[in-house]
Amino acid sequence: MVEALVLRWALPGPAARVRGTVAAHRGYLMPFGYLFTVALSSWGVACALTRWRRLGRVSAIPALLVNELPFMLGYLLSASTVLALVDGDLDSPAGAAGAGVALLALAGLGVVVYRALLAHGALHSAGRPRRPWGRILRAPFFAGRRDVVRVRNRAYGDGPRRTLDLYHRRDRPAEARPVIRHLTSRCGFVCVSVNYRLQPKVTLADQVADVRAAIAWVRAHAAEYGGEPGTLFVTGSSAGAYLAIQAVCSGETGIAGLICRYGYYGNLAPSGDMPPLLVIHGEKDLLVPAAAARAFAERVRTVSSRPVVYAELPGAHHDFDLFESIRAAAVSEAVEAFTTRAR
User: Fold this and answer.
1) Long-range CB pairs of 231-236, under 8 A, 24+ apart, other chains included
2) I need a surface site. Which of 19, 214, 229, 276 has the fewest CB within 10 A?
């Protein structure tokens, strides 16, 4: 545009013709950058609203990001469309079509947000939901809490990966999932995130042994960080849920409650009483069908006299509490209520 203005000042006739030629052909230029952004965003929205298991990570990763970070994608789509409008890219047929698809994607994001808002009711939570909108609207950025201290890589055994990260309130004596930050900040819990050795280098029995060793370490050291060793909840997500259940069923006693999120349960069939159990699963989980989680909860109900709570989150995929999101806030509140009842 600057070059056209300079030419027109120096040579009025030719410059006017050059400028007119550019304007005439401008409607046929292809706004590739804008169309790529719209196509990628629309694919993510489609994955979030559906359940395409056969596509694997090609579907699962976009579904997770869009499902739990819809506002960030909305910012991107809106900003891209405004920029395309200012640059005149929407004057072309391709640009106009891209804008129409962007509007459909934004409408799809509205459905994603609506489904996330249903999580509070699906978790049978009482009262009005407490949603940290400040953190939700800027997720995944600035997710930490200043009143939570993280102690990294404490060893609970010999060898690689036998370490844990410990979280406690800053005002207790001497960055993880939202549920850990919530329980640490709001409830005064001391939370521990445990690494364990991986197959095929070790067996399932070795992994269960790692979980039990970590539990023993927590009982021995929790008081140093302001925790109560006698009130211990074990929580696991995905494969970690399977290991947590195996550890509890293999003789671990004195557990106040067991919390499983989007877990894999296989053919687990506990044969006796278990601690109070909370199972939370996503309706559209691509890795573990919700039906498998429901069946596990029913198997536990047939043998355990303790409460078994199952909640299925509308529209949720795997890893639904990885980021600060509407759904993660609802899960954190439900876990808080569950630990209160169990105690």
Assistant:
1) 231/256, 231/343, 232/256, 233/257, 233/258, 233/259, 233/339, 233/342, 234/258, 234/259, 234/275, 235/179, 235/259, 235/260, 235/261, 235/335, 236/260, 236/261, 236/263
2) 229
